[in-house]
Specification:
The protein has two domains: 16-124, 3-Layer(aba) Sandwich (Collagenase (Catalytic Domain)); 159-278, 3-Layer(aba) Sandwich (Collagenase (Catalytic Domain)), CATH 3.40.390. Helix content is 48%, strand content 7%. The strands form two sheets. A four-stranded mixed sheet has the order 1-2-6-5. Strands 3-4 form a two-stranded antiparallel sheet. Helix 2 runs antiparallel to helix 8. The protein has helices at 19-32, 56-77, 80-86, 137-158, 182-186, 199-223, 236-258, 262-277; strands at 35-37, 90-93, 98-99, 105-106, 108-111, 115-118.
């Protein structure tokens, strides 16, 4: 029987550093001590899920966009020391989404503030990428929604947001959020359906949506809540008041806890996203 000692791609194999590896090292590892893992390692993910590796040609556009939209905007409002301290130290990339048994899709995860896993890399495209005339707005915004969501978790895990946030609409959280549309969630004072899953996710969904959609986009969500009452009996005025109350707490939290002008960060973030979309 022939014994195979080394099967490339199953771990333990080595490779020569490429131009891509040097870019990642110079762009993220040297200045922020962030390592990006794009070469496939199934054990970085749930082994029960069927996933595909990221295409190498997608890695630089994704990381460059992350640097401009997320890292640079936070540095502009704080400094590089802030990002070095709080940014996750590992970014793991998957080419496809991770489907769950209940029909939902996991688009990103954060583990203990140390690692962020980003899925659906192969679907990412912007107007700056060769071969595309226009960006896929939904996919681009989705990428940054995940990043801002997960970074929001890291921030509140270091310093908790005010408890009064949990008192705004406590009886409306549900494990059945995946059967509720965003429009229906808005009618109960939640910015997205996923925000209804738990207090912490509600808070970071507010942070993420406000940053990615910008002030005008967030106001459009609030003002778009229809007249009448939701299935739970929440009126239009009550739902809008809930979202404005959450907005105020988010802004105050960033100001008092991190000395960040949230509206300025919001403007910077949305400006950078629009450069990719239009």
């Amino acid at each position: 029987m022939k014994i195979i000692n080394d099967i490339p791609g199953l771990g333990g194999d080595t490779w020569k550093a490429s131009v891509l590896d040097k870019y990642l090292y110079d762009t993220l590892t040297v200045p922020f001590n962030i390592q990006v893992k794009y070469k496939w390692d199934q054990f970085e993910f749930d082994v029960s899920k069927t996933l595909v590796p990221p295409k190498e040609e997608k890695v630089i556009p994704v990381i460059e966009s992350i640097r401009k939209v997320w890292i640079s905007t936070y540095i502009a409002e704080t400094d590089s020391i802030f990002m070095k301290k709080f940014c996750p130290k590992f970014i793991i990339l998957s080419g496809s989404a991770s489907w769950n048994s209940n029909g939902t899709i996991t688009l990103g995860t954060a583990e203990g503030g140390r690692k962020i896993v980003l899925y659906l890399i192969n679907e990412f495209r912007t107007k700056t990428m060769d071969g595309y005339q226009l960006a896929d707005s939904a996919t681009v915004k989705q990428m940054f929604h995940v990043i801002e969501h997960e970074f929001g978790h890291i921030l509140h895990q270091n310093v908790m947001y005010p408890l009064e946030y949990k008192r705004i609409n406590p009886g409306l959280y549900t494990g059945n959020w995946n059967n509720i549309s965003n429009k229906e969630a808005n009618q109960d004072g939640f910015v997205t359906a996923y925000a209804m899953s738990a207090f912490d996710d509600d808070f970071v969904e507010m942070v993420s949506t406000m940053l990615v959609e910008g002030k005008a986009g967030f106001d459009k969500i609030v003002n778009g809540i229809p007249a009448g009452t939701s299935s739970s009996g929440t009126t239009q005025a009550a739902a809008q008041a809930m979202l404005h109350a959450k907005e105020a707490i988010v802004v105050d939290y960033f100001k008092k806890t991190w000395k960040i002008d949230f509206y300025s960060l919001q403007t910077r973030t949305r400006t950078e996203i629009e450069k990719l979309l239009y």
